């Protein structure tokens, strides 16, 4: 599937609540590194809960398909949640 700039602007990655210590976060980062190298860790480090996927993609100069692949892996592993801007806006208004 091809992702457009508008698709990526509409999704914001949020880091999941890591139960445990800094050691748990290090294990997550190591898992990302083992699968995607420094590219994956750079994405993880760029996630602040405010930047859209497109903003992170442009900042890191990545192909849309690649960043989606890496973020979907992180979401499947429970490392991040991918939320639409509408979901975030709705949560803020509750």
How would you describe the overall organization of this protein?
The chain is mainly alpha-helical and 94 residues long. It has six helices and two strands. The protein has a two-stranded antiparallel ribbon with strand order 1-2. The radius of gyration is 13 Å and the shape is globular.
| Count, helices | 6
Average pLDDT number: 90
**In what order do the strands lie side by side in the largest sheet?**
1-2
Structural class: mainly alpha
Strands, count:
2
Could you name the ranges where pLDDT drops below 50 across 5 or more consecutive residues?
none
Fill in the CATH topology: Arc Repressor Mutant, subunit A
Q: Cα distance, first to last residue?
A: 33 Å
Biggest sheet record? 2 strands, antiparallel
What is the CATH architecture descriptor?
Orthogonal Bundle
Provide a concise account of the structure shown.
Helices cover 62% and strands 11% of the residues.
């Amino acid at each position: 599937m091809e992702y457009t700039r508008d698709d990526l602007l509409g999704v914001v990655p949020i880091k999941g609540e890591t139960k445990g210590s800094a050691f748990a976060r290090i294990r997550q980062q190591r898992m990302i590194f083992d699968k995607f190298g420094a590219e994956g860790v750079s994405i993880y480090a760029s996630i602040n809960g405010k930047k859209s996927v497109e903003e992170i993609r442009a900042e890191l100069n990545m192909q849309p398909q690649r960043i989606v692949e890496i973020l979907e892996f992180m979401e499947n592993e429970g490392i991040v949640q991918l939320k639409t801007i509408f979901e975030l806006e709705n949560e803020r208004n509750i």
